[in-house]
Specification:
2 copies of one chain form a homodimer.
Chain A (H helix, E strand, L loop, with lengths): L12 H9 L4 H9 L5 H7 L5 H13 L3 E4 L11 E4 L1 H4 L2 H13 L1 H10 L1
Antiparallel strand pairs in A: 1-2
Helix pairs in contact in A: 3-4
The first copy, chain A, binds a DNA duplex (30 and 30 nucleotides) through helix 4.
DNA sequence: CGGCATACCGAATCTTTTATCGGTTATTGT
DNA sequence: ACAATAACCGATAAAAGATTCGGTATGCCG
């Protein structure tokens, strides 16, 4: 987990939400879990563009913020078979994620056109 | 405008939307414009925690992605009195932004508690 | 036994983003 | 005339974030 050196605390819901969701793959991870991928290896494979280490780190952050929960934390049992699931807090975000996703897809062409020129 | 060295193009609406919206203050800027602040100086003052330079840069990016439009681009006229307004594309995001904002505020206490411990 | 898989963590390195500072241009106020 | 304001831009410093690589622990399969 990264730690920031610069403080910031605006009472802006957008800002707060972005602090929780703002990571290269956090939304995609939540979406993968929603689609039924509970195990880390599954999630990692489903987002093959991302480096596995980032998935690990972002899973840890989502866990820290209470968006997901981890079962099978039994350290002595092998093979480790962790499973991540959405908490009520995480679930409460699903309708919004669905809308963001729909918006992104609806404007995919325009966005990618712009991204291509950067 | 920064240019990335690492390519990425997943057909994931969430990812695309985050590329457009993912910036420390982009959502807040859109919200400020929605609330009626059209001039750069107003926007900057309304988000006093942010550095003015970042607001400028993120305004430029929102403009680039067609989320906002700029009037008074007359370079020879002084004092410059630019005004930024939401485009239809930007407006189409407002309902979603409102929901994200509401979510962030609804969970403000939990989120800030976590942020404080980082 | 050797190699593979799972689930992690730590650290070095590199990229991306944000912050800081100074400069430009021209009008308005004192 | 001088300071202030507005709306920028460019360069550089600093911070945040992502990637890469290697290591841990253990069980399974041939």
């Amino acid at each position: 987990m990264y730690t920031r050196k610069i403080a910031d605390d605006p009472d802006c819901g957008l800002y707060l939400a972005m602090r929780v969701l703002g990571g290269k793959w956090k939304c995609c991870i939540l979406d993968a879990i929603r689609r039924g991928m509970t195990r880390p290896s599954e999630i990692t494979r489903s987002i093959s563009e991302a480096s596995p280490r980032v998935i690990e780190m972002q899973l840890a952050e989502l866990l820290y913020f209470g968006m997901i929960e981890k079962s099978q934390d039994n350290e002595t049992e092998y093979p480790k078979r962790s499973e991540y699931r959405l908490t009520p807090l995480g679930e409460s975000l699903l309708p919004i994620l669905a809308q963001i996703d729909a918006w992104g897809l609806a404007h995919q062409a325009e966005i990618q056109e712009r991204l291509a020129e950067i």
